[in-house]
Amino acid sequence: MFEKNKIMKKITLSLGIITAVAFASCDVLDDVANSAGTILNDGSSTSSGLTNGEVISGLKEALTVGITNSVNLTSVTDGFLGNSEIKLPFPQDAIKVKEKAMEWGLDGQVEKFETTLNRAAEEAAKEALPIFKNAIVNMSIQDGFAILNGGDGSATRFLNNATNAALVDAFSPKVEAAISKVKLTDYWNPIITKYNSAMTFTGGEKLNPDLNKYVTELAITGLFKMVEKEENKIRKDPAARVNEILQKVFGSIGK
User: Fold this and answer.
1) Residue 204 DSSP one-character state
2) What whole-number percentage of the chain has pLDDT above 70?
3) In terms of Cα–Cα distance, which of 80, 232, 59, 38 is closest to 135?
4) CA 47 to chain centre
5) How far apart are CA 17 and CA 40, in angstroms?
6) How far is residue 55's CA from residue 142's CA, in Å, rounded to a whole number?
7) Cα–Cα nearest to 97, from 122, 114, 116
8) Domain ranges (residues) in the chain
């Protein structure tokens, strides 16, 4: 009997130790789960009451809305030309060409060139939407929460940093086609040809900037500027949150 009681005590003690270890392990797991709550992709709720899926869905929706609105604003006549924030000016590395052209009385040619420069950007912008949409597909959970809490323009900066090089590669042929369609070089060639001819006699530097690169870079910069405005509008103005997921996700910021 004594041996039996002794064995029972050992069993009870062992069970107690196992239980204590199990509870301690649960506490550790809870701590890990809590600290990783914003990077799990299992639909679990975050401290804001949003699931990870909802956050990513809301951010992608915000970027999609911003991109769509921006393309709709810029891909129409005067979308660039009539917007002082993103209007493409005469190429800065060829500003001497403009100055000489004005001296020579080519004001009309200069104006036509600047107008057509922006027409090329407006034409190319029509092709931007699917390119931008494809760029937001692979946003990670970590990126999502960093963007959500990153303040004004953080989603746009993420999109720009992650995709700018690829966008240039994809956008450039669209710009080249647009330049051809609006006959931009028809207005540029007379100006640059006369300027470079004059430089032949004066010994000055001949110039002929890459118009395709110039329009591509400034058109993409202009589009991102408009996307950022749309993103910040969604962040700050409840009326700009046009559906339930945007209201839920961006309404949670600051709570």
Assistant:
1) P
2) 80
3) 59
4) 27
5) 32
6) 11
7) 114
8) 57-251
pLDDT tens, residue by residue, 52-91: 888 888 888 888 888 899 999 999 999 999 999 999 998 9
Distance CA 129, CA 49 (A): 32
Alpha helix (H) ranges present in the chain? 2-35, 52-74, 95-103, 107-125, 128-135, 141-148, 154-181, 184-202, 211-236, 244-251
Determine the residue type at 40. Answer: L
At position 225, the amino acid (one-letter code) is: K
| Predicted structure pTM score | 0.71
User: Which of these ranges, 12-21, 73-82, 96-105, 150-159, has the smallest mean pLDDT?
Assistant: 12-21
Average pLDDT, the chain: 78
Among 46, 15, 20, 21, CA closest to 33: 46
Q: pLDDT grade, residue 144 (50/70/90)?
A: confident
DSSP category for residue 92: G
